[in-house]
Amino acid sequence: MSKQRTRTEVKTAIDVSETAERKRGRPQAAQGTDLKLALLRSAIDLFAERGFDGVSLSNVAEKAGADKGLSRYYFGSKEALWIAAMEHLADCFASDLNKALVVNTATQTEALKALIRAFITASARWPQVSRVIVHDGAKHSDRSDFLQRHLVVPFYTALKDLITGAKSEGTLPNVSDRTIFFMITHGGSFPMALPILTNAIEGGDIRSSDALEHHSEAIIELLFSKA
């Protein structure tokens, strides 16, 4: 069988300096770049923790250690800050997903398994993705539409092709692609998004490398063992 190659668009994550000195007023260029990224990181954490309605521009600035007016100075409105934060989160998640992904595989089945492992690794690094989806994906809104376009649909498209290929190879049961997708994404990511609940059950700290590896292999075993 000819080798198959999975392709995922690579995006570069932006490292955020958390130690940059903060000053009042309009920042200089270099300091301003660091501060803007710190505001984005703070916004991601707060929107994931509290949801859109539970966060103010002042909350974001305070968490970043910045003057309260700088969130509005850089982003204009809470809506614009949310969009910028989610774009940054999507870029970071995609970058870490690609770093963990082994792209050369012999079969569609092995490519899908590699993508599942990479997804779980990236989800542990960015549990905010699942938390934001819970807060803003439960009702129709501009924010849920944004999450669908930028986070859900791109990954579903990548997975669907591999799911179809694995079915044709006889390694996956012939059940709904959507069901398989949510088994991978929700089953794969939510234990890390809810570590307090997860770790209340025996099995070790879900954030540890050993627990993550066991979690990945368990998901794969459940999906492929009954084909």
UniProtKB/TrEMBL annotation:
Keywords: DNA-binding, Transcription, Transcription regulation. Residues 1-12 have a biased composition (Basic and acidic residues). Residues 1-29 are annotated as: Disordered. Residues 33-93 form the HTH tetR-type domain. One of its GO terms (molecular function) is transcription cis-regulatory region binding. Signal peptide: none annotated. InterPro entries: Homeodomain-like_sf (IPR009057), HTH-type_TetR-like_transc_reg (IPR050109), HTH_TetR (IPR001647), Tet_transcr_reg_TetR-rel_C_sf (IPR036271). It comes from the Bacteria. Residues 56-75 bind DNA. The keyword DNA damage does not apply. It holds the Pfam family TetR_N. This is Transcriptional regulator, TetR family.
